[in-house]
């Protein structure tokens, strides 16, 4: 595993909140790194009609322009997802899907709030009874049991690797695995059984999950199904940090400076709650970028 030089500000998420934070942080002349895949943002696939001074423009175009702005001010990008964030002294250690680790004085969480559903029979009915969207939250309930993971990106693969520390067997189902080589090697090394090209079509059970039906007409007996469709979400990334969530356990609580309850951790955009609109995300990203940069400077030079 490679540890890179320390950054002042690391931003998780390349949507409108993350990009605006990146613009303002980079303009304050602090070393800024943006992480995440732009097409993970819900805005990437949208068309914009209700944002001031932009009318009938594609989300992809807006995000690409934002990336150009961040880079023009000296910000850096790595188009990969984050697997974990952990305190390391006065810094934060951020592990990437490639196997690399970066250190940062501050972190801005701007990953959005969507939790993609598998959309199969039994998913809703068995939620909390064997169906989970958070490996870090629920893995410990499946010691010595057989579990299934659904998803093709880093959250699914990283979750499957983590589950091998608890479950007796871990089966990962996906259309086509789309992760960095380092994470794919971890799947092999930890014994995850990869079923590429096979999808879960139904989750079965009465009082709890007992099997999944697959689109190759077979079934597999499992005790749990972890649905991880996309990048790591708010629950997973904050599980080891102690970041306070709201009563719904969906959104992060912040103050007017976009600070969380953990010094050095900021949040912006949909991850902070509704309205889930680009205008709100950009405004919060602006504040978070400025405040995180100021915080990093104080750590460097003293208050």
UniProtKB/TrEMBL annotation:
InterPro entries registered for this protein in UniProt: FAD/NAD-bd_sf, FAD/NAD-binding_dom, Ferredoxin-NADP_redctase_2
Residue ranges annotated for the FAD/NAD(P)-binding domain, each copy included: 7-285
Gene Ontology molecular function, alphabetical: oxidoreductase activity
Record key words, sorted: Flavoprotein, Oxidoreductase
Highest taxon, organism lineage: Bacteria
Annotated PANTHER family: THIOREDOXIN REDUCTASE 1-RELATED-RELATED (PTHR48105)
Protein name as annotated: FAD-dependent pyridine nucleotide-disulfide oxidoreductase
Source organism per UniProt: Pseudodesulfovibrio aespoeensis (strain ATCC 700646 / DSM 10631 / Aspo-2) (Desulfovibrio aespoeensis)
């Amino acid at each position: 595993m490679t540890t890179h030089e320390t950054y002042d500000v690391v931003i998780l998420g390349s949507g409108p909140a993350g990009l605006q934070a990146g613009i303002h942080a980079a303009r304050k002349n602090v070393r800024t790194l943006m992480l995440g895949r732009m097409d993970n943002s819900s805005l990437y696939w949208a068309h914009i009609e209700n944002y001031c001074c932009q009318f009938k423009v594609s989300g992809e175009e807006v995000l690409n322009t934002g990336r150009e702005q961040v880079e023009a001010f000296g910000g850096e990008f790595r188009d990969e997802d984050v697997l974990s964030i952990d305190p390391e002294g006065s810094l934060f250690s951020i592990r990437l899907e490639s196997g690399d680790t970066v250190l940062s004085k501050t972190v801005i969480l701007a990953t959005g709030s969507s939790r993609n559903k598998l959309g199969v029979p039994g998913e809703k009915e068995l939620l909390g009874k064997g169906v989970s969207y958070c490996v870090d939250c629920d893995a410990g309930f499946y010691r010595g049991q057989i579990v299934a993971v659904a998803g093709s990106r880093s959250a699914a693969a990283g979750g499957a690797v983590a589950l091998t520390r608890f479950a007796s067997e871990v089966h990962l189902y996906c259309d086509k695995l789309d992760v960095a080589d380092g994470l794919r090697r971890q799947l092999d090394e930890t014994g995850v059984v990869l079923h590429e090209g096979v999808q879960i079509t139904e989750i079965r059970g009465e009082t709890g999950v007992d099997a999944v039906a697959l689109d190759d007409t077979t079934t597999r007996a499992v005790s749990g199904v972890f649905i991880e469709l996309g990048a790591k979400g708010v629950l997973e990334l904050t599980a080891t940090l102690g970041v306070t969530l709201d009563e719904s356990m969906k959104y992060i609580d912040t103050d007017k400076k976009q600070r969380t309850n953990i010094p050095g951790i900021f949040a912006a955009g949909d991850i902070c709650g509704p309205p889930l609109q680009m205008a709100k995300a950009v405004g919060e990203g602006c504040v978070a970028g400025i405040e995180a940069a100021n915080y990093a400077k104080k750590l460097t030079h003293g208050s």
